[in-house]
Queue: 2 jobs
Job 1
Amino acid sequence: MNITEAAARIAEAGDGSPRRGRDPVNLPMIRNWLEALGDTNPRYEAGSLAPPAMVQVWTMHGLHPASTAGDPLSAMSVVLDEAGFTSVVATNSEQAYHRELRLGEQVEVRSRQRDAAGPKRTALGEGWFVTTESTWYVGTEAVATMLFRILKYRPPGPPEPLPSPPAAPPAAPPVDVLRPVVSRDTAFFWDGTAAGELRIQRCGECGALRHPPGPACPECGALKPEYVVAAGTGEVYSYVVHHHPPVPGRALPFVVALVELTEGVRMVGEILGAREFGVGEVSIGAPVRVEFVRVDGELTLPAWRLADPEGER
Amino acid sequence: MISGKAVISGQAAIAGIGATEFSKDSGRSELRLAVEAVRAALDDAGIAPSEVDGLVTFSMDTNSEIAVAREIGAGELSFFSHVGYGGGAACATVQQAAMAVATGMAGVVVCYRALNERSGHRFGQVSRAAASMPTSSGVDNGWTYPMGLGTPAATVAMAARRYQHVYGASSEDFGQVAVADRRHAATNPNAWFYQRPITLAEHQASRWIAEPLRLLDCCQESDGAVALVVTSAERASGLRQPPAVIRAAAQGSGSDQFVMTSYYRDGLTGLPEMGVVGRQLWRQSGFAPADVRTAVLYDHFTPYVLMQLEELGFCPRGEARHFIAGGAIQLGGRLPLNTHGGQLGEAYIHGMNGIAEAVRQVRGSSVNQVPGDGPVLVTAGTGVPTSGLILSEVR
């Protein structure tokens, strides 16, 4: 199936599944927004009204968005990624407001694909313009609409090894986690986590395994780093229950462990779900299994979950 | 490879010490704090600022050697250095000064550290800057910070947990260090926690920071500055204060070393880089652990004080909890530690205030003076490439 056919099929599918706002229209969020934008107009608070331009805020993903399956823009992005149009830039966002929202109203948004035009030659490279139409509803009443256009383009030079993220609306803030500094020596590891593989550096000369990786083998001196894919199992070598101070992108407390992999190397990662089942469940020697936490298109973190021999947690 | 006794031992001495007050909000620039401490140290030694021809500080200090030189009116410098790895460099500043003096590169070298660590940049918080440095250290931090391990306390907690698991040490054992420090601070008018000792029960009741570390296992955050004047032992003998002769001075980095996260090399129950320092200190000075009268062991976090006692040979591995029991590290015990109150009790001046206390012990002027004439040992930041000194009076 070519891109035009895929685009037509996505367009024919019409509205994707509705996304409901996490919270009803509320005063704290309105105040934050007004403050952030420096809008001192008293009428919103006085009239219990939300500024119309806030409409996207009500249905934003949280810091850790769930899967966007069923979203037309995500689906189209996958098609274009696979065809090599892996980079993305937002080009247009036109919004129309039908009425002001009131405190307590529950909003949901539906999106459909309006158009996919390409391939076009642009200053950034060859690409496709994809336009989606989003409508916000209160019940069955449409309160605002948005035409949102992105350019998915083929980056100049060698193609990116990794697919870009599904395009997000321009107002979405970047996910607040600390990102690793990636060097030419360590890129394979992060490429691996994005691809769902836990990669361990292996010397191409003597076969020694090593983590964290580097350009040279401390055992034999060879400058021939390769990697193997780990089984993804190991046990807790040590761990920390972090209570204070706050850490970007994490709710307190959380558990970080030093895991000794079955292959023998150690690596640091969060123990997922510890707050739910109780941090006291973690212990040195506990078996764990790797999981991959996709932060966004640029970063996937390796993490661990206790492997319960009695069954799934 | 390990230097022999004759090379540096006894060649140079600390002739002056100076400090600002220790506070939570100095209200002054870090450069001004540096200038005040350097002037105080020179005044203590009886040396004019114009005689200073060398300056040494360490990474994380925001005041360049030339800026300090300008402000104190030092004129020309022939030796200046900025040692790496933060608090691990505290004693290395004195080592470099001693080497410069011993080799004739400079005549009067001042070591300094000034910081608004409480009112300004707080080290205890997660450092976005450390996580994003475009350097090999930044790449190193990429194996921990994104995973949520991004504070000094948390990085120490990882090793402390393993140490507890292997040797059976408890939170109470860690607490003994805090109790000793705070007891000593309680009688030191310059200490932040002057007249505020704690009990072990208070330590145990303090909140978790990064389990197994409690609040009272963690050092303070402080504003302040300390400076030390190093010159030849010969010249120091004729100055205002009794000299603290540098009998040994060493740096150490272990194999497969990282900054705070050397998690991949061994059992995670020691501080091999401090072992490297200790072996040099004993060899250079000719002293043994049993000779030491009192020690200032870097105490940003209590568990690493236990590990240092083992690495330096004061007790066998895993037995520090027995060594420190029963008040052994308090005044009157067999090895009083951190008689100024340490960084938990006096102030966190990145290890430099501990060197000043070691000098006072040699002079006999500490508010918590330990009797005897044995040498005084002082160490620098742990968990990172580190350093240490052995000081004693002229003999």
Job 2
Amino acid sequence: MTAHALNRRDLLKLSALGAAAVALPLERVVSAKSASRIASSKLPRPYTLPFKVPPVIKPVRSDATTDYYHIAQRTGVAEILPGVKTPVFGYEGISPGPTIRATRGREVVLRMTNELPARHPRWGYEAWTSCHLHGSASLPQYDGYASDITRPGQVKTYRYPNTQDARTLWYHDHGVHHTAENAYMGLAAQYHLVDPLEQSLPIPKGDYEAPLILTDKIFNSNGEFIYDDNGHSGLYGDVILVNGVPWPLMKVEQRKYRFRVLNASLARGFRLQLSTRDPMTVIGTDGGLMVRPQTTAQLRLGMAERYEIVIDFAKYKPGQRVELRNLGVKNSVDYDNTGKIMAFEVTGPAKSLADNAVSDPDGLLNPQAPAMDLAPAMAVQKRKLEVERKNGQWVISGTTWADVVKSDYRKVVAKPKLDTVEQWEIVNKSGGWFHPVHIHLVDFKIIERNGKAPFNYELGPKDVVYVGENETVKVLARFGPHKGRYMIHCHNLPHEDHDMMTQFEVVGDSEGEGDDPITSAPPYGIPDPLPDL
Amino acid sequence: MAGIGPAAAAPTAPADRAERNWRRAATWSVNTTAALHVVVGLDHLHHSTLLAAFFFGVALVQAGLGEGLRRRGPQGTLAAGVGGTVALVVLYVVSRLATLPLHEFNDRPEATDLLGMSVVTLELITVAALAALAAERWRARILDGVLLVGLGVWAAWATGILS
């Protein structure tokens, strides 16, 4: 008769396979607890450093219609980790760069000098740049076209019309093939466009409004940044910075605060949640205020996406700490402290309760946001874009920026007519990657995500859409207000640089082409002395 | 007087009890794994019908094995069950450590997630239970084979073949 039992020897035989099956895949996960090579004692404990915000830059001069700014792109040294000097590239030598505060209807002229070293001191590439004001409907030659590069020692003057609704924009580098390194080194900053509607709403402002620029970094033993994009797949830092500070602590009063959240990481997606699991109120998206606020307990945030959120600290007791956590997204590499972002410590009663609402008394914010008025029936053309990796390259519908360059910048994936509405379907067939897809020039409305409604916090004008693993997203956009060639790309910046970027051209009926993005306003050598603006 | 009254229930032999328990464990683990493979298949349906079909096929075969176990199929069923399950475990490990050309867009090892870990744990229980159900001379051979496969996986990892 057979004894149905496993003896010790049998179990030992089984354990070789069992241990391999359980331990080896987990080893991959467990071994990825930190990326930085600097001593862990040099890294601050989360929530010990004070929160700070980048300075707001003042215009050099202003006239009746325009504010004039000068910003130098140059190297600087930042003390991101206490007592550790980190070389950065910064607008005005700081990272994040200074915030520009613009008013709708007033043009901004921004003269940008590239005073960076001819070669990156460590990584060796030529530090050319191209400044993109992300979220602005700029003319093609001022849009930061990737190949419209300003080399070290050159200057370029950008003009921003500021004709759109109030919104949180950001300016960042877009230089071809080095966007990721330049942005990682620090060439990124916020730009706030305000308008009478936004100013009239009783939503938090002034001391009760703050930018949250999220990035992640890897530090070398000498304090320098390490750039490791894992074979152009993505860079995942183990140190989370908010406005350039690792895991800061912000003191808040018992009232509502408005945060302009920007994911300025190269490849890390975030899923925000409060440690109390209380809801956050989303009042704005990439293209400005939503029609009405939306509440959510979790907020998925892809690279370059902006959300304006309101957190109400009124119910928390003085001394109570509320953490803003990152639950992580699929296919981001997480480390010990990448689940933490920052913390808020409640100090006591509010000094002012003015502008302490999330909407007007009717529950509205911007009922006439142009992109949100679009409907599928208005679309005169439907197009499909596939974002994928093919033969080791990141491509959009089979094309790369190299293809665009090879065509003398003529190759386009779409030619929408000026002021017409189109419906674009963006397809990501991969289970291994998500792609935040940015369409320049336009605000769009997300109408469908995998056949279902978009998340409630996406119900606002957008210019970046998180196309998750195996997701298909449909968007509607009205193409304008300018003619010309504009880029579409993945905002995972190593993907963009290698070479997930293409372009579309907005065309008119007969009036000729739009301005050329490269030749219409080319950079030139920095004159000595630099003339007044 | 003997034979009067209701007949006493025949005592269950410990060997029978053990056999019944292992059979229950094997049937439960193999059926649960089949159900989870349906979930995995649905997860893959969006981007690869081939992969989805593979997992649906695996689920079907595992459901068949579960039925075979319930009906006390022949010893060959047990050996085939162990062989197939070990192959799935190896495929799981390889897919988590190496980039397989599973579909056109696959460019990195699969993520180690709770669903995958649950499936592989159940499969290890299945292997153990099926081995326990096998006749002793079959069991020794089966477990020697499992040992060799396990050592092979470790060797492939240690030498960098699986990385």
